[in-house]
Amino acid sequence: MVQQRTRRQMLVGVAGSLALAGCVGGDSDGGTDSGETGASDGDATANSDESWQAVALEDVRSGEEFTIADIEQPVVLHTFATWCSTCKRQQDTLANAYENSGDDVTFIDITIDENDNPADLREHANDNEFGWRFAVAPNQMTSDLVDNYGQRVAIAPQSPVIVVCPDGTTKTLDKGVSAGKIEDTATSCQ
């Protein structure tokens, strides 16, 4: 007897294959892949639903609960997984932008990998001396992000960097984006 797979099991399988492909041959120049839909490289994105910005998150180091919607300055949001080498390279770039931005921009890394837990994130942030906020994305937030930005936001090696302006509008930047482009995009929405 053949067991039928659920839609979720099939999506997880496809996403895993794409994630592996992204780690092996990911685009690192920050350019838009052909076939991508939606805005990139700092273009304003007209999102149909920004409810994900009101989802409660918990900073894994401080235990502070926060929402992106409550932050009154630009937010640089990066979805990642602790195992992803492409994400780590992007985080090294984020570290430069973080240092240059001072207190004018909030940086947040959220894991979209269900296997990462707060202790894993805390260890990752501390071992790499990253000073910004880290949180675990609740399933609903990941689902809402996928609805707004496409499946690639849940595929760690391909996930865009999302800049959230204080008015709630967003701009997306491709994985591999430079620190200068991140800084310029965040500054443009102040």
UniProtKB/TrEMBL annotation:
Signal peptide: none annotated. Residues 34-44 have a biased composition (Low complexity). Residues 46-190 form the Thioredoxin domain. Residues 27-48 are annotated as: Disordered. Gene3D superfamilies: Glutaredoxin. This is TlpA family protein disulfide reductase.
